[in-house]
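Predict the 3D structure for this chain.
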Amino acid sequence: MAAHDNPLFAAIYDPVTALAEATVLAPHRRYITNGLTGRVLDLGAGTGASVPFLVAARDAARRNGDALDVHLLDPDRHMLSRARRAADEHGLDATVVCGDGESLPYPDDSFDVVVSALVGCTIPDLDAALDEVARVLRPGGQFRFFEHVAADGLQGRIQTTIDPAWTRLAAGCHLDRDLEAAYHAHPGFDVVTVERHGGVPPVAPLVRGVAVATG
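Done. Predicted structure below.
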């Protein structure tokens, strides 16, 4: 996993994104974690930005007599150590795993839900990762996603122009991936909900939605 480690990016990620997380991004993290129950994988957990929302989901599940078993996965050990600290600070009993999206360390049908927040832009082999998500979801399980995607028109051309430099600075993040199309095209999912929202250019537009594993 060492090839994925980026200690500088891990150190600056939370301060750089704090304002966006508190304003633009928070409603979308709440959307993909709302009403969770069962066994859940946070794919690309990063520094643990979704942890407070997972705690809220756990508490709601408990009030309804349900349980929530959370797994936090990321390929970067420095990001993951911060996610572990966030889980500890918020009282979330989560399983923390260092692993790649393209080769998930779980057997088939392991999860009821996989959540992915601002992750698809960074995975080197997106098709392989989607294959893995479909594999580890039980039939009928949900893939809940929240991503930034390629824009149209002038903004899209600007994204493509600056993408090589952006990718180097932002630890592999690509601005111009058409993730919505990729999710619709994957044979392992039936995309049942997609919504488009604004963002903060060049990280815009944002999409969020739910896909169901077809098994």
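Strands lie at 38-43, 68-74, 95-98, 111-117, 137-148, 189-197, 206-213.
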